[in-house]
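Exercise: predict the structure of this protein bound to 5'-deoxyadenosine.
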Amino acid sequence: MKDNTNINAEIRRIIGESSPLAYVRSFGCQLNVSDGEKIKGVLSSLGYGFTDSEQDADLIILNTCAVRESAEDRVFGIVGSMKKLKERKPGLMIGIAGCMTAQSRIAEKIKTSYPQVDFVVGTSAINALPELLLGALQGRGFSADITEYDDFSEAAVQVRESSFKASVPIMFGCNNFCTYCIVPYVRGRERSRRPEDIISEVRGLAADGYKEIMLLGQNVNSYGKDLGGDMSFPQLLRELNAIDGDFVIRFMSSHPKDASPELIDAIFDCEKVAKHLHLPVQSGSSEVLRRMNRNYTAEKYLGIVDEIRRRDPGFSLTTDIIVGFPNETDEEFAETLALIRRVGYDNIYSFIYSKRSGTKAAEIEDTTPEDVKSRRMRELLEVQREVSAEGYKRFLGKTLRVLADGESRKHPGYITGKSDEFIIVEFEGDASLIGRFVRVQVTETMNWAVKGKVILEDNL
Ligand code: 5AD
Ligand code: SF4
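Solution:
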């Protein structure tokens, strides 16, 4: 592992007693948010404090996402606007991290068109951050490190945003090469963390009173394959389930091609594992799935759903869907709508296809007009609202265990949280409940959440 002892000491000497503030903003998925917490961990060990305001910051790090073009455009907009900020505050340092940095055309664009940026740090190079920062502090000009170090994952302690919900990355990268997806190019091949490191981290979190542990990976179902196969994901779930404490275990994301009977058994056997599965289907058309290189058919996917529902008819499922994959026909899109109705998802994360250069799908000539894609998106959202509203009725009168998360923005006086089934639950209560499990009896359903009343507060 990179030895940063001298570099860290030099940074601390330069910073002295000045207690500088860093603003770290993460875009995109939860894995990236977790990387942002690691970046904060590195900065905290160097003596930085944190601020939520760009204006107050001495150091700004934008931890970027490359999954869709819109996310990249947003970052370029923000970096552009920071030119003025830097003119007003010459000592301000700006760094770019995250998935965008791994594309050479983007790294080049940052270097040539955005002189306000001091350094670029790649997703696997967080351990190189002190060196880059030192260069910037010493006024040595632009520097970048986007090397794929393979020993970085245990290097940094996360500075966690929440005191009761923790994300724990269990693996990095992806081997699947779905034709639309940039992730394998920007995050590299699958690398699993050692089970003992994960287990001891979760043990520590449970001892610290964390109530939700979210295991993260691009495809958690292939966890451990690169470690020689001694510990599979279902086995890991069982190990974590055996840890003492009052917490719920969630995980994201599962690839349907690797969703095994062992996984389903583990979900049902482990009382701490949430009775909810996020199973991204992407499309309901087997032909589109073939063009996406997803390695399963709609029938195989429905087979998994049926097996889960055979064991628990009310089991909660959520999914990701891409609308308007190149040359998706009306019939193929109709198959997606039919699948949504058939499965009855509680929630769907839907995205209009975004062309990512370097991927296989970017080479396809796409004849589907943009307005057709937008219309399909609207239709999908409509069907989804209908399907979830209908599905949520199964909770009426039932009591759900809910982790109270924060005050509701929509309903003053209400607290919002997520049930074990990953349903948004709103209930009357005060802020003292936040971070605790409560039992809520559902009295009303909406199309995006359910409402209820608290009947028991756990661990009082
Ligand atoms: N365009 C649109 N959506 C995408 N996703 C991944 N790549 C793209 C893309 N190029 C979506 C998939 C994935 C989720 C995290 O983002 O649905 O499951
Ligand atoms: Fe992208 Fe497919 Fe890997 Fe998910 S499984 S990160 S969609 S390549």
